[in-house]
């Protein structure tokens, strides 16, 4: 059981750590913003880089999964674990063997994700509009924006595959970097 004084102490320690290392957060934030801007300026290259990165991640995790599965082959679920690891290896090999075609596939998956996320977020907002009072409209807006992004991506296929993933990753990096810069500057002043 966490006591209120423990929470207060942890918050104080966290503030002190952030204040002590504010320059590191600032540098990381600036670097993320630069990388994000580069991804937004050249989204096809960023899309390709993300695809290749994911390919290596699937391949490495699949190989590690195969090794661990065979190491612990006496454990229950051996065949499911083996199938899962082999699927990771296969996905990695496909992404790495045909990265340009894989960008299109990943873009379709991202479009489907935004479509599903938009519908779910809108339904969540409508379901909770009484409990969330004025804040439910922000959820509704978020869901509508997700649907708009999904429409733009899907309607623009196959051309949107060239820019969608790179642009979205770039936006994410810029926003993440900006939040780190803001946190660093606020910690420096306190």
Structural notes for this entry:
The chain has helices at residues 4-20, 22-41, 43-71, 78-97, 99-127, 136-155, 164-189. It is mostly helical and 190 residues long. The protein starts with a helix and ends with a helix. Helix 1 (4-20) packs across helix 7 (164-189), helix 2 runs antiparallel to helix 7 (164-189) and helix 3 crosses helix 5 (99-127). The model has no long low-confidence stretch (mean pLDDT 90).
Main beta sheet strand tally, sense and closure: none
Run of helices and strands:
HHHHHHH
Low-pLDDT segments: none
Q: Characterize the overall form.
A: globular
Radius of gyration from CA coordinates: 22 Å
Number of strands: 0
Strand content: under 5%
Query: How much is the average pLDDT?
Result: 90
Determine the fraction of residues in helical runs and give it as a percent range: over 70%
- Oligomeric state as shown: single chain
Distance between the termini: 31 Å
Please identify the structural class as seen in this structure.
mainly alpha
Number of helices: 7
């Amino acid at each position: 059981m966490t006591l209120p004084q423990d929470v207060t102490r942890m918050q104080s320690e966290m503030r002190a750590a952030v204040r002590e290392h504010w320059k590191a957060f600032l540098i990381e934030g600036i670097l993320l913003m630069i990388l994000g801007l580069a991804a937004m300026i050249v989204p096809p290259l960023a899309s390709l880089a993300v695809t290749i990165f994911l390919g290596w991640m699937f391949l490495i995790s699949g190989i590690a999964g195969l090794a661990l599965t065979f190491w612990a082959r006496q454990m229950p679920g051996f065949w499911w674990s083996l199938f899962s690891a082999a699927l990771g290896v296969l996905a990695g090999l496909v992404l790495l063997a045909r990265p340009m075609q894989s960008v299109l596939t990943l873009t379709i998956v991202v479009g489907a994700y935004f479509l599903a996320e938009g519908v779910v977020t809108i339904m969540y907002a409508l379901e909770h509009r009484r409990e969330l009072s004025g804040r439910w409209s922000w959820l509704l807006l978020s869901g509508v924006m997700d649907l708009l992004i999904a429409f733009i991506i899907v309607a623009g296929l196959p051309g949107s595959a060239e820019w969608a993933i790179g642009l979205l990753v770039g936006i994410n990096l810029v926003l993440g970097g900006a939040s780190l810069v803001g946190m660093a500057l606020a910690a420096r002043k306190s």
